[in-house]
Amino acid sequence: MVGVPACGATAPLDVADLVNESKRVIGVVEGRSNPPEFLPRLAAMMGGGRLPVGELIKTFPLRDIERAAEEMRTGLAVKPVLAP
Questions:
Q1: Distance (Å, whole) CA 32 – CA 58
Q2: pLDDT in tens, 31-77
Q3: Straight-line distance from the first to the last Cα atom of the chain, in angstroms, rounded to the nearest whole number
């Protein structure tokens, strides 16, 4: 799962699949940075033109989710965004 869930959101997990496939669930916020420090720095970089956000985002229609994932894996899309 990738995204920003609402507070208190839950997700069903197949625990047997986690164990049998040696999978892990890891929660990460902002790449393990300190958001109160990191987000203002990002905003300053964007405001100063030093963070080309538009070049990092690539939008895909929801029906192309597999292509979006593949382009992310291969590096063709840095931050794929799915649109309905």
A1: 23
A2: 778 888 988 999 999 999 998 888 889 999 999 999 999 999 999 99
A3: 17
Token pair in block for residue 55: 């070049």
Distances (CA, A) of 11 to 17, 27, 63, 77, 78: 14, 13, 22, 27, 26
Total number of domains in the chain? 2
Number of helices (H), then strands (E), belonging to the chain: the values are 4, 2
Q: What is the per-residue DSSP string for 44-66?
A: HHHHTT-S-HHHHEEEEEGGGHH
Residues 47 and 60 in one domain: no
Predicted structure pTM score:
0.49
In a domain, 4, yes or no: no
| Same domain (yes/no): 41, 59 | no
